[in-house]
Design goal:
This protein is an alpha/beta fold. The chain is built from eight helices and 25 strands. The strands form six sheets. Strands 1, 2, 3, 4, 5, 6 and 18 form a seven-stranded mixed β-sheet that branches. A five-stranded parallel β-sheet has the order 8-15-9-10-11, with helices on one face. Strands 21-22-25-24-23 form a five-stranded antiparallel β-sheet.
Length: 392
């Protein structure tokens, strides 16, 4: 058995940012990052954007340059699963049976793609997307003249449709909502997204649901909706959300919360001293929300990983960064959001959506809940300051 000061579990930006911040803060302790991913920690957003379009390569998706890990004396183990965590003995057991004793640990195992349980999902040319390998598979299956079906009208559906339209493919988005991204960004911003994407030839089928996929010669050829529509589909990308990956945490005896994440406190520390959670799998006591919450987005995972590094080194401040999200629709527009989510009873527009520069403030009982903006960085800054200013 060998010992490390800081054990980081996960191959995403939460674990990578934790390692970077530990070194930035001057820590000389030993660091081991273990991930079952094939590649060093990488950014996930390019999988639906520039990497999918072939505008950047695998190296361009990496969070740090390839030599950063060795240069900063951080041990990186890719293709390495951790099978067990004994939190009493503070020992992690790797898939090869090697045992690692640790001082502090970060569980940043991310999320797993949510899979649709409908007839026909076993056909060929059916795709989910979360890693660069998924993007590679989509590109391999695409042929000129194919009709692409995107199931889901949120980030993945709209971003993949935008990217593939840029590559010259015809795309249709099937979604439960009336407007794309309506659940996260509201009806006004959703209407802007729909009008923008439709102007580039993307078709939307809203307020409907996939019932089954039909094939020919083993490959998908059509989608049948519960509303009775038949949509051509030579290739389908299913983007219907993700589930926190808490299998390791559950086996270790860590408590899982109502949203399916690992329960932790305001510092992102679990009830086990020195063991933290961050990113998609963390359900934390938020001083901004006034309750436990779990947030799935790269920027949140990054800032949480950095916060955990400082907490590992003794910082006691709560994690209090307002959630920030962004969505790139090819090179046509970028939507940015700062806010808490949750119920909204008023959407107040600043600017004109038709101009391509506007913001929508979300209010609940007259109190700011969040803001979504296109080309309005000032509105984001104001919202961030207002939310932080409310912390007691």
């Amino acid at each position: 058995m060998r010992r490390v000061d800081h054990l980081l579990i996960g191959g995403g930006i939460a674990a990578a940012s934790c390692a970077q911040e530990l070194r930035a803060q001057g820590s000389q302790g030993s660091i081991l990052l273990a991930t079952r991913e094939m590649d060093p920690p990488y950014h996930r957003p390019p999988c639906t954007k520039d990497y999918l379009r072939g505008e950047t390569d695998r190296e361009g998706t990496l969070i740090t340059p390839a030599g950063w890990w060795e240069d900063n004396d951080v041990e990186l183990l890719t293709r390495t699963s951790i099978n067990a965590l004994d939190l009493d003995k503070r020992v992690a057991t790797l898939a090869n049976k090697e045992e690692i004793e640790f001082g502090t640990a970060l569980v940043a195992t991310g999320a797993l793609v949510r899979r649709l349980n409908v007839e026909g999902t076993d056909l060929e040319r059916i795709h989910y997307i979360r890693a660069p390998g998924n993007s590679d598979s989509i590109r391999r299956d695409l042929r000129e003249g194919m009709q692409v079906l995107l199931v889901g009208g949120s980030y993945i559906g709209c971003e993949v449709a935008s990217s593939l339209t840029m590559l010259g493919h015809k795309c249709t988005v099937l979604m439960l909502e009336r407007q794309p991204m309506e659940r996260g960004f509201g009806a006004i911003a959703g209407g802007f997204v729909r009008e923008l994407l439709e102007s580039h030839g993307i078709e939307f089928v809203g307020e409907d649901e996939l019932e089954r996929l039909e094939g020919e010669d083993g490959a998908v050829r059509a989608a049948i909706t519960k509303g009775g529509r038949t949509l051509p589909a030579d290739i389908a990308v299913l983007g219907v959300g993700a589930m926190p990956d808490v299998m390791l945490a559950r086996r270790a005896g860590l408590e899982i919360g109502e949203t399916g994440g690992i329960i932790c406190d305001r510092r992102l520390e679990t009830p086990v001293s020195g063991v933290f959670a961050a990113g998609d799998c963390a359900e934390f006591d938020s001083v901004l929300h006034g309750r436990r919450t779990r947030i799935e987005h790269e920027e949140v995972a990054r800032t949480q990983g950095e916060h955990v590094a400082r907490a590992m080194l003794g910082a006691t401040e709560p994690y209090a960064e307002p959630p920030y999200f962004w969505c790139d629709l090819a090179d046509w527009a970028t939507l940015e959001y700062v806010g808490l989510g949750g119920p909204v009873d008023e959407e107040r527009v600043e600017g004109d959506p038709s101009s391509g520069s506007f913001a929508v403030r979300f209010l609940s009982g007259g109190t700011l809940n969040g803001v979504v903006a296109v080309d309005r960085g000032d509105a984001l800054d104001d919202a961030r300051a207002e939310l932080v200013g409310r912390i007691a």
